[in-house]
C-alpha cells in the first residue's frame, strides 16, 4: 500500500484529505508542523509528502529542501491557497513534483498524487551504475547510482550502449532512443541526464502515447486559469517544468501532426507561451525522445514531420532487445531478484538450473520490463531458497519445452518416410504458431483451424501438455 504524509497546520484540511486518500487505498499519516513531519519521515519511509506551503514553524520551500536532502526517494507536492507562478517554478526546480492551489478538487488531487508516485518510482528505479574504470568527464561528478530498471551487463551490446551514453551525455545534443518496448529507453534517458551538466536540474518524463489532441497543448506548454472551459487553475507545462534540465518524450511517434508542428516551433525558437497567455517564456531544455516505431517509415507515410525528426536526430541510440544480450539476462535476473528480496523481505539465493535454462531460451518479447515482472512474480510464489520452474508463468516454461522439443526433433534420426515427414512438419507448424501467439492456445487453435481439444492432444503427443 502506498504511504502518504500530509503536512498541514489546518487540522480540518488534514483530516478531510486523510479520509479521502484512505478511501482510495492509501496509507496516510498527518502532521501539523514541519518538526513533527520530519519526525514521521525519520521513523518510516513515505512514497509522497503533501505539504502546505504556509506552516506555523516553517514553509513549504524549506520543507522541500530538507526532504529532498534527507529523503530523495520521497516525492513532494506543495499545496497553497496563493497562486504564485514564479514560486511554483522555483519549487519544481528544487524537486517538487507539482504545486497545487486551493481549493482542492478530488479528481484533480487524486490524479496528481498517482502521477507523482509513479514518477518518483521511476526516478528511484532509473539510475545507472558506472564501473570504476570508466573515466569522469572533466569537472563532472560520477552521479550514477544503482537501479533496478537499467543494469550494466557484460555483453558487447551492453558495453557499446554504455560507451555511447558516456559519449553523448556531456553534450547538448538532442537524442533519439529507439528499441522495442521494455528495453529501458527511459532509464537510458535518465542516465544521459545524470551524467550531463544538467544533472542537478529537472528530469521530466512525458508519455506522448497517452496524450489526446485536446490535452496535448496544455500538457506541453501549460495554460492560464480560465483560458478554456475546465481550466480551473494555472498549469505549468512539461517544457516549463524541465527548463534548465532534460525533457524526455516517450513514444513520440504517437503525436498528432498538429502537435508536431507546435513542437517544431518550440524546438526552433526555444520559447513557449502558455495557453491563454501572451507572455513568452525562454527555454533551455535538452530533449531526448524515444520510440519503438520506425520514424523513417512514418515520415514516408506522412505520419511524422521530417523537419522535426532532423531536429531531434542530432544523435541516436538503438537499444538492443534482451534476447540479443546473451548472459546479461542472468545478470539482470539476479539484480531484479535482489530487489524483490528487499521488497518482499525474502532470502531467495538464486534460480534453479531449469529456470536459468528457461530464461536463456525464452525470447522475451517484453524485454527487460517483462523479465523484471517475471522475477518479482516468481519471488512472491517462492518460499524456498531457490526459484523453481513451477513459479514461472506457463508461457515461459512451455516456450522452453517447445525449444527443447524443436532441438530434439532436429537431432533425432528418423526413417525418411512420408508419415514421419508429415508428423515432423505438423509438429513444427504447431510450435511455430504457439510461439507467434505467445502460447495462447485458443488463438493457436483458431490459426491452425482445429479445436482446442485436438490441439491439446497434439501438444500432449510432443510433451507440451503444460
Task: Summarize the structure in words.
This protein is an alpha/beta fold and 466 residues long. It folds into 4 domains: 3-120, Rossmann fold (3-Layer(aba) Sandwich); 156-320, P-loop containing nucleotide triphosphate hydrolases (Rossmann fold, 3-Layer(aba) Sandwich); 323-392, Orthogonal Bundle (Helicase, Ruva Protein, domain 3), CATH 1.10.8; 394-466, Arc Repressor Mutant, subunit A, CATH 1.10.10. Helices cover 47% and strands 13% of the residues. The protein has 19 helices and 16 strands. The strands form 5 sheets. The protein has a 5-stranded parallel β-sheet, with helices on both faces. A 5-stranded parallel β-sheet has the order 7-10-13-6-14. It has a two-stranded antiparallel ribbon with strand order 8-9. Strand 4 (75-80), helix 4 and strand 5 form a beta-alpha-beta unit. Helix 17 (418-436) packs across helix 18 and helix 18 (441-448) crosses helix 19. The relative contact order is 0.07.
Amino acid at each position: 500500500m502506498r504511504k502518504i504524509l500530509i503536512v498541514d497546520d489546518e487540522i480540518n484540511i488534514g483530516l478531510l484529505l486523510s479520509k479521502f486518500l484512505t478511501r482510495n487505498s492509501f496509507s496516510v499519516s498527518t502532521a501539523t508542523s514541519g518538526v513533527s513531519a520530519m519526525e514521521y519521515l525519520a521513523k518510516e519511509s513515505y512514497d509522497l509528502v503533501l505539504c502546505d506551503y504556509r506552516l506555523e514553524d516553517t514553509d513549504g520551500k524549506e520543507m522541500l529542501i530538507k526532504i529532498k536532502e534527507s529523503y530523495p526517494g520521497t516525492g513532494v507536492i506543495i499545496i497553497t491557497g496563493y497562486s504564485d507562478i514564479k514560486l511554483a517554478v522555483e519549487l519544481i526546480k528544487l524537486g517538487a513534483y507539482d504545486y497545487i492551489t486551493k481549493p482542492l478538487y478530488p479528481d484533480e488531487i487524486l490524479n496528481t498524487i498517482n502521477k507523482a508516485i509513479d514518477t518518483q518510482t521511476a526516478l528511484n528505479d532509473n539510475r545507472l551504475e558506472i564501473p570504476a574504470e570508466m573515466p569522469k568527464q572533466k569537472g563532472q561528478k560520477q552521479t550514477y547510482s544503482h537501479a533496478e530498471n537499467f543494469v550494466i551487463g557484460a555483453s558487447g551490446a551492453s558495453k557499446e550502449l554504455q560507451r555511447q551514453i558516456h559519449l553523448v551525455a556531456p553534450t547538448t545534443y538532442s537524442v533519439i532512443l529507439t528499441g522495442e518496448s521494455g528495453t529501458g529507453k527511459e532509464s537510458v534517458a535518465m542516465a544521459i541526464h545524470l551524467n550531463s551538466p544538467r544533472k542537478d536540474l529537472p528530469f521530466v518524463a512525458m508519455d506522448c502515447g497517452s496524450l489526446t489532441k485536446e490535452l496535448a497543448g496544455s500538457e506541453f506548454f501549460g495554460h492560464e486559469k480560465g483560458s478554456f472551459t475546465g481550466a480551473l487553475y494555472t498549469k505549468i507545462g512539461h517544457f516549463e517544468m524541465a527548463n534548465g534540465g532534460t525533457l524526455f518524450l516517450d513514444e513520440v511517434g504517437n503525436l498528432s501532426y498538429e502537435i508536431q508542428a507546435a513542437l517544431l516551433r518550440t524546438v526552433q525558437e526555444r520559447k513557449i507561451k502558455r495557453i491563454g497567455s501572451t507572455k513568452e517564456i525562454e527555454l533551455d531544455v535538452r530533449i531526448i525522445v524515444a520510440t519503438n516505431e520506425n520514424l523513417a517509415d512514418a515520415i514516408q507515410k506522412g505520419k511524422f514531420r521530417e523537419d522535426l525528426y532532423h531536429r531531434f536526430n542530432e544523435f541516436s541510440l538503438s537499444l538492443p532487445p534482451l534476447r540479443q544480450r546473451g548472459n546479461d539476462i542472468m545478470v539482470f535476473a539476479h539484480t531484479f531478484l535482489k530487489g524483490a528480496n528487499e521488497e518482499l523481505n525474502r532470502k531467495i539465493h538464486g534460480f534453479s538450473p531449469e529456470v536459468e535454462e528457461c530464461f536463456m531460451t525464452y525470447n522475451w518479447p517484453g524485454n527487460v520490463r517483462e523479465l523484471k515482472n517475471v522475477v518479482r512474480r516468481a519471488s512472491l510464489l517462492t518460499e524456498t531458497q531457490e526459484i523453481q520452474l513451477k513459479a514461472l508463468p506457463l508461457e515461459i516454461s512451455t516456450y522452453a519445452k517447445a525449444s527443447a522439443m524443436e532441438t530434439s526433433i532436429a537431432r533425432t534420426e528418423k526413417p525418411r518416410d512420408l508419415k514421419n515427414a508429415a508428423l515432423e512438419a505438423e509438429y513444427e507448424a504447431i510450435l511455430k504458431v504457439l510461439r507467434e501467439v505467445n502460447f495462447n492456445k485458443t488463438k493457436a487453435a483458431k490459426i491452425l483451424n482445429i479445436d482446442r481439444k485436438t490441439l491439446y492432444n497434439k501438444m500432449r503427443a510432443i510433451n507440451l501438455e503444460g
